[in-house]
C-alpha cells in the first residue's frame, strides 16, 4: 500500500520532481522518519517486474522541436507513467537530446501551459483562443500605428516545420518588418 502511495506520488509529480523531493527529504532526515514509521517497504518481485499493471506502450514523438524524435510512451489508465526511446524510429534511431528524454515530465507538469492566459491586476486568468487572437491582433495594430512596424519583433520556434517558418517570415514581411529571429538564439 505504501509503495502504491510512493508510486502514485512519483506518477503525480513526475520523475524529476519526485527525485528532487526525495533528495530534499533525505537532507532533512525525512527518509529516516519515513523508514522508522514503516511508510516504505521493499517492492515485491512481481511489482519490480511489472510496476504498472495493464499499461500499454504507445509510439509517439517528442514535440519539443520539429525533428520529431521517437518516444515510446507507457500509459496506464490514461496516465503517462514511463518513457523509453524508440530504437526503431527512422530519424532519431534510439537517440534523444535532454529535452526529449524529459518529455514525460514536461507533459505531466502542473505548470504546463494548456490554454491562453493573461495577467490582469496581478492575477492570471484564462482566455478563449478567439479572445487571445483578438487581443494580439489589436495590440499589433496599435503598436504599428503608434511606433511603426519595426517596433515589433517576430520570434520563431524550434517547433516549426520549414513550411511554418516560411509562413512566419512572410507574415512578418506583410506586417512590414524584417525583424524576425529564432527563439533558440536568445
Ligand atoms: S527536442 Fe531533442 S529529442 Fe525532442 S525532437 Fe528535438 S532533437 Fe529530438
UniProtKB/TrEMBL annotation:
Gene3D superfamilies: 3.40.50.740, ADC-like domains. It is found in: Cell envelope. This is Molybdopterin oxidoreductase Fe4S4 region. The keyword Transferase does not apply. Transmembrane segments: none annotated. It comes from Sulfurospirillum deleyianum (strain ATCC 51133 / DSM 6946 / 5175). Residues 1-35 form the signal peptide. The keyword Cytoplasm does not apply. It comes from the Bacteria. Belongs to the prokaryotic molybdopterin-containing oxidoreductase family. GO terms for molecular function: 4 iron, 4 sulfur cluster binding; electron transfer activity; molybdenum ion binding; oxidoreductase activity. Keywords: 4Fe-4S, Iron, Iron-sulfur, Metal-binding, Molybdenum, Oxidoreductase, Signal. InterPro entries: Mopterin_OxRdtase, Mopterin_OxRdtase_4Fe-4S_dom, MopterinOxRdtase_cofactor_BS, TAT_signal, TAT_signal_bac_arc. Its cofactor is [4Fe-4S] cluster. One of its GO terms (biological process) is anaerobic respiration. GO terms for cellular component: cell envelope. Residues 55-111 form the 4Fe-4S Mo/W bis-MGD-type domain.
Amino acid at each position: 500500500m505504501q509503495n502504491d502511495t510512493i508510486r502514485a506520488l512519483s506518477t503525480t509529480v513526475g520523475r524529476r520532481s519526485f527525485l528532487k523531493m526525495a533528495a530534499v527529504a533525505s537532507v532533512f532526515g525525512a527518509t529516516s522518519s519515513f523508514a522508522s514509521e514503516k511508510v516504505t517497504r521493499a517492492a515485491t518481485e512481481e511489482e519490480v517486474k511489472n510496476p504498472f499493471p495493464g499499461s500499454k506502450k504507445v509510439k509517439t514523438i517528442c514535440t519539443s522541436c520539429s525533428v520529431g524524435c521517437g518516444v515510446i510512451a507507457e500509459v496506464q489508465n490514461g496516465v503517462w507513467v514511463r518513457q523509453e526511446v524508440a530504437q526503431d524510429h527512422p530519424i532519431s534511431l534510439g537517440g534523444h537530446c535532454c529535452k526529449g528524454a524529459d518529455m514525460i515530465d514536461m507533459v505531466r507538469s502542473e505548470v504546463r501551459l494548456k490554454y491562453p492566459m493573461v495577467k490582469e491586476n496581478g492575477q492570471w486568468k484564462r482566455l478563449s483562443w478567439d479572445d487571445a487572437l483578438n487581443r494580439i491582433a489589436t495590440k499589433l495594430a496599435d503598436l504599428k500605428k503608434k511606433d511603426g512596424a519595426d517596433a515589433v519583433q517576430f520570434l520563431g520556434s524550434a517547433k516549426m516545420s520549414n513550411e511554418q517558418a516560411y509562413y512566419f517570415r512572410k507574415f512578418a514581411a506583410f506586417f512590414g518588418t524584417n525583424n524576425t529571429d529564432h527563439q533558440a538564439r536568445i
